[in-house]
Amino acid sequence: MRLTGITAGYEDTTVLRGVDLTIPDNAVVALLGPNGAGKTTLLRVASGLLRPWSGTIELDGRDVTGQPSHALAAAGVCHVPEGRGVFPGLTVDENLRLQAPSRTAVAERVLPAFPRLGERLTQRAGSLSGGEQQMLALAHAYTGRHSAVLLDEVSMGLAPRIVDEIFEHLKVLAASGTSLLLVEQYVKRALELADYVYVLRRGQIEFAGEPWQLGTDAILSSYLGESS
Ligand SMILES: Nc1ncnc2c1ncn2[C@@H]1O[C@H](COP(=O)(O)OP(=O)(O)OP(=O)(O)O)[C@@H](O)[C@H]1O
């Protein structure tokens, strides 16, 4: 997926200013930056939830700019949004069926990777623990072969053990050749997984390169205001 010259915002507020970002095939890209930099907004543009004011979005070499989110989802973009991306009033099974193209996809791809969800199929998603809800949201990425999976702070607010589990799932996805765009508060862990890193600041790309080029913890903390 390639985003070129993306300018976007909300009503009269410009959030992104001429952003270029590429998610190469079979690669993990970390998108870092301080609060309010525009990371979530960029993911929303990439998944078609927010139409950019200018710039282009290419998927598998095809211009998909302006296509709505359901069309981009059908074309292979999977967006795991910030917060628990599940329908709390529906059961685990119903949530999975909304995410997956078929029951076979759930049985063959999702349940082997997330056995605990398999034990709770009839439970309402809203009554799962926070970690289980996030696993359910993350399960979406396992439902098929996606061209790009966009993950917005999927480890936010979870216990360290659950965060470990989430990163294990991300490693498995990456090893299977799925391209990931990762917005993460756990900067070090994200950089361990990433092939490329972008730093977004006030709506502009301030750094693009490989993780080793980003430098030391001190640089990281000054860029990002944290060093976790
Ligand atoms: N629906 C909206 N309407 C108006 N402004 C918005 C809306 N959503 C986000 N913004 C503004 O856009 C800017 C960028 O927000 P965004 O959520 O993209 O940043 P972020 O980098 O993901 O931040 P964080 O790390 O805090 O999640 C912020 O100033 C925010 O207040």
Report on this model:
One of its GO terms (molecular function) is ATP binding. Keywords: Amino-acid transport, ATP-binding, Nucleotide-binding, Transport. It holds the Pfam family ABC_tran. InterPro entries: AAA+_ATPase, ABC_transporter-like_ATP-bd, BCAA_Transport_ATP-bd_LivF, P-loop_NTPase. The protein is an alpha/beta fold and 228 residues long. The model has no long low-confidence stretch (mean pLDDT 92). It has a domain at 1-76 and 148-153 and 179-228: Rossmann fold. The longest helix has 16 residues, at 160-175. Helix content is 36%, strand content 25%. It has helices at 39-46, 69-74, 92-99, 103-113, 115-118, 130-139, 160-175, 187-193, 211-214, 217-224, and strands at residues 2-10, 13-22, 28-32, 54-59, 62-63, 77-80, 148-152, 180-183, 196-201, 204-209. Strand 1 and strand 2 form a beta hairpin. The protein binds adenosine-5'-triphosphate.
Report strand order across the widest sheet: 6-7-8-3-9-10
Largest sheet: 6 strands, mixed
Oligomer: single chain
Bound molecules: adenosine-5'-triphosphate
Mean pLDDT: 92
Helix percent reads 25-40%
Distance between the termini: 28 Å
Number of separate helices: 10
Class based on secondary structure composition and strand pairing = alpha/beta
CATH fold-type name of one domain: Rossmann fold
Instruction: Let me know the number of strands.
Output: 10
CATH superfamily label of one domain: P-loop containing nucleotide triphosphate hydrolases
- Label the overall shape: globular
Rg over alpha carbons: 17 Å
Which CATH first-tier class of one domain would you pick?
Answer: Alpha Beta
One letter per element, helices H and strands E, the order comes to EEEHEEHEHHHHEHEHEEHH
- Unreliable residue stretches: none
Q: Which CATH architecture of one domain is right?
A: 3-Layer(aba) Sandwich
Beta-strand content bin:
25-35%
